[in-house]
Amino acid sequence: MERSKVKFQLIDNLIIIPIEINGVELSFILDSGVSKPILFNIINSADSLQFNNVESIYLRGLGDEGSIIALRSKKNVFKIGKAVNVNQDVFIITDASINFTPRLGIQVHGIIGYDIFKDFIVEINYGSKFIRFNDPQAFRYKNCRKCETLNLTIVNNKPYIDAIAEVKGKDIPVKLLMDSGGSDALWLFEDDSLGLVPKNDKYFEDFLGKGLSGSVHGKRSKLDRFSINDFHLENVNVAYPDSAAISFARKFKERSGSMAGELLKRFNIIMDYANEKVTFNKNKHFNEPFEYNKSGIIVEQDGVRMVKERDNNNRFKDGQNKDDNIFKTTVVVAYKYQLKPAFKIVELRPDSPAERSGLKVGDVILSVNGKQTHNLQLQEVNSYFKEKDGVFIKLKIDREGVIMTFHFKLESLF
After folding, report:
1. What is the reported pTM?
2. How many structural domains compose the chain?
3. Reading across the β-sheet that carries 130-134, which strands appear in turn?
4. How many CB atoms lie within 10 A of CB 201?
5. 303: phi > 0 → left, psi -120 to 50 → alpha, else beta; which?
6. Could you tell me if 60 and 140 are in contact, meaning their C-beta atoms sit under 8 angstroms apart?
7. CATH number of the structural domain spanning residue 80
8. What are phi and psi of 139, to 5 degrees?
9. What domain range includes position 326?
10. Which residues, other chains included, contact 149 with Cβ-Cβ below 8 Å and sequence gap of 6+?
11. Quick one: how far is CA 341 from the chain centroid?
12. Which run of H or of E encompasses 355?
């Protein structure tokens, strides 16, 4: 295998990498929590991809809506940087509702995990946003006194580590899935016998995200402290998903939850499946505060809308009146119409500042604090809702063709 380095985008704490499949370049989420590559959102590329040896199967993931039908295709050619696999299985979901693009605001066509990690020693540099795929036979570890190396437990092709969660002043050992395909910091499975429960009156009910098998809701709270050996993080975001949505995930009885992107991004990581170990080295994100969306709004990119914009290439026409020697200037202001992303409210937390202001699911956000959203990325829109307590938010929205304005202040959730 040839050593390969690939730059990635970090969107909503998720790693997005380019992968070429059967000669077609697509975008994938690098998800250490999945055992096989899964494709979706490929209607426009299906003919070019030329899948062979196809059979129907059922897949199950997070969510409470049961299994979904997928197509399994064998002997596909995957190329990631300089690395090539000519005999790759892939699972294709044709259900158009399974699509991460609206949530992330960029085109995403699939998720991939174990098939990358099993063949390489993978360096994930969250600080500089690149991944290096190393040949296990040629890779040599560097001396790193500031690093922490842990044993990695591989179960059903998924990686687990041991850590310590401090809940209500008590240190609780936890075994966590390393889930680079999750946006949150920590998910813990509620367990009264172990003490894995939210603080009294220090949590709120919320939408946690979407899995392959539907939506996930649960409780959001804070941990006083979370430790990976000698790395300690304070005031960490934690979610306790509803039991119905994680019934499939709990089949591994020793599992206590997941450690995901909001926490993983604070380290540069070396994943070494062959030797069953993982190395952490904190990076520039380590001391960043853990923030919640304080508005109660969940926004997705929902298609496009037509936007009228002033054309900066204004045309000027100068002329002189022969009788009075006065110069007259005619300014012609030109406008152009363009299709721009539409950002729609898809979830509203009950009794949140946004809901109390009168906003509704389905409202399309036109501007936030005077900034036109068609000039922003989805993640930039969402960043306004994670500001400090008391920050004033003004939204202009389109509700079924009626333009309206709403105001609210961000509020502490605890």
Report:
1. 0.85
2. 3
3. 4-7, 130-134, 121-125, 267-272, 277-282, 148-151
4. 7
5. left
6. no
7. 2.40.70.10
8. -75, 140
9. 297-409
10. 277, 278, 279, 280
11. 18
12. helix 353-356
Whether residue 162 sits in one domain with residue 86 = no
Query: DSSP class of residue 200?
Result: T
What is the distance between the alpha carbons of residues 64 and 58, in angstroms, rounded to a whole number? 15
**397 falls within a domain:** yes
Q: Which residues pair with 402 in a beta bridge?
A: 399
DSSP codes, 303-329: EEEEEEEE-SS-EEEEEEETTTTEEEE
Write down the residue that tokens 């919320």 correspond to: 206
Mind listing the pLDDT tens digit for each residue in 371-380?
999 889 999 9
387, 11, 33, 17: CA torsion to nearest 10: -170
Q: What are phi and psi of 304, to 5 degrees?
A: -135, 165
Q: Is 291 among the domain residues?
A: no
Q: 259 and 173 share a domain?
A: yes
**Quick check: helix, strand or coil at residue 88?**
strand
Give me the amino acid identity at 238.
Answer: V
Instruction: Examine residue 142 and state whether it is found in any structural domain, yes or no.
Output: no
CA–CA distance, 232 with 269 (Å, rounded to integer): 16
Residue 143 domain-assigned (yes or no): no
The total number of residues written for the chain in this structure? 414
127-142 mean pLDDT: 91
With contact defined as beta carbons under 8 Å apart, do 95 and 67 qualify?
A: no
Q: Which residue has the tokens 């929590």?
A: 33
Same domain, 276 and 309: no
Same domain assignment for residues 153 and 232: yes
First and final CA of the chain: distance in angstroms? 51
Computed on alpha carbons and rounded to an integer, the radius of gyration of the chain in Å comes to: 24
In angstroms, the Cα distances linking 288 to 13, 229, 232, 363, 382 are: 13, 19, 13, 32, 17
310 with 370, same domain: the answer is yes
The span from the CA of 148 to the CA of 229, in Å, is 7
Give one DSSP letter per residue of 103-171, joined into a string: HHSS---EEE-HHHHTTSEEEEETTTTEEEEE-TTT--PPP-TT-EEEE-EEETTEEEEEEEEEETTEE
> Per-residue pLDDT averaged across 4-19, rounded?
93
> pLDDT per residue over 207-228, tens digit each?
888 776 667 888 999 999 999 9
Q: How far is it, in rounded angstroms, from Cα 142 to Cα 140?
A: 6
Residue with tokens 């174990």: 114
